[in-house]
Amino acid sequence: MPMDASARPAESGSPCRPQASPLGLLVALSLLALATLAGAADRAIVEDWSRQTPGRRGIPDGWQGQRWGNPTYDFTVVEVDGRRALHLRSRSESSTIARDLRGAVDLEETPILEWSWKAVTLPRGGDSRRKATDDQAAQIYVAWERFPAAVRSRIIGYVWDTTAPVGTVARSEKTGTVTYIIVRSGPEGLGTWFTERRNVAEDFRRIYGEAPASPDAVSISIDTNDTSSTAESFMGPIFFTRP
């Protein structure tokens, strides 16, 4: 506890408290600052929802909506199962939000994308491998923009699919810039929270045959327009971390 400025010096014969030297205090503060920076470098938070207001609907603060289609953004920030998350629902439409990452993530230092999610309802007959059924209940994308963005960008999508087997790597027949990696599939585990970890740098090398630059954005999406069905999911904290 800091000493009260009004406290008197100890009288002769009474025990004296040791006085901290200015140099010692400076060293201690410097070590604390270095430890804080090191801890920050171990994790680059994309979103943990802690600064979002529970009950907020639509596009969350700090995120941007898509520039195509007719999204409904049936999104709500909620407190659920003892955690804060984004609740996503979709009916015969597709909604995507994106967060700019430029300058915020270094994949050489923090190549692991970690996130938690819970799927509740899967789009009926959804299959990421087919253009006619390219719908998913929960999707998280990492994007590297290249001009012209619509045809040359590189996007990896980690998805919970309805049909395609776990581990499938498939280029989207609908959007040629997207390559899907099926992380979970089917009804097993519906209603349960899962934490996923993917080495984005390794996935990029496996798909594109070269080392990745720092990503430009992360997107969250829910999609039911191709199957004309419904879907529901929750997305928890998202961050990049060290292996």
Annotation keywords:
mainly beta; Jelly Rolls; 7-stranded mixed β-sheet; 6-stranded antiparallel β-sheet; globular; disordered N terminus
Describe the structure.
A hairpin with a 2-residue loop joins strand 3 and strand 4. The longest helix has 20 residues. This protein has a single domain, classed as Jelly Rolls (Sandwich). With 243 residues, it is mainly beta. The N terminus is likely disordered. It contains 3 helices and 13 strands.
User: Per the principal axes of the C-alpha atoms, what is the gross shape?
Assistant: globular
* Spatial strand sequence of the major β-sheet: 2-5-12-7-8-10-9
Number of domain modules: 1
Any guess at the CATH architecture?
Sandwich
Order of helices and strands: HEEEEEEEHEEEEHEE
Mean pLDDT: 88
What's this, in brief?
The protein has helices at 22-41, 149-152, 200-208, and strands at residues 43-47, 64-65, 74-80, 83-91, 94-100, 112-121, 138-144, 154-161, 169-171, 178-185, 194-199, 217-223, 230-241.
Strand and helix layout:
Blueprint: H1 22-41, E1 43-47, E2 64-65, E3 74-80, E4 83-91, E5 94-100, E6 112-121, E7 138-144, H2 149-152, E8 154-161, E9 169-171, E10 178-185, E11 194-199, H3 200-208, E12 217-223, E13 230-241
